[in-house]
Predict the 3D structure of the following.
Amino acid sequence: MRAPADTPPERIALGDLSDILGYRLRRAQLWVFKDVNRRLARFDLSPAQFSVLTVIAANPGINQLTIASALDIERAGLGRLVDRLTQQGLVTRIASLVHRRYYALHLTAAGRKLLDRVRPVIAEAEKALAERLGPSAHKALLRALSIFL
């Protein structure tokens, strides 16, 4: 018999999953992305778009292939993402003077302005996560996970 839709699900045993770090990391990642998605919704921006804008801001003139590699995003998916950012007037593509097949990506003034408005919102999300973990655990987790950067 199923519980009514308005009844919260019971807590169930997760078996071996409880002891698997990868499972716990994935659950944490889902919690963080849900929170960040909610916070970014008012800007019509996804976490992936925020990441790409941030990388372009830190590396003016970077090409899509380098971003795809750095953020581990499939090239085709990144192409669509950059197309959307370009259509929204947040990013410009300029033909590379060095490699004919590459485009150098730059933030537009609107892209810089949006990023300036979004950064404090992301900082709030990071603060909420730090509070949930506790300051020392937050710092330790950042340090431990830095090996994947």
User: Anything to note?
Assistant: The first helix runs from residue 21 to 40.
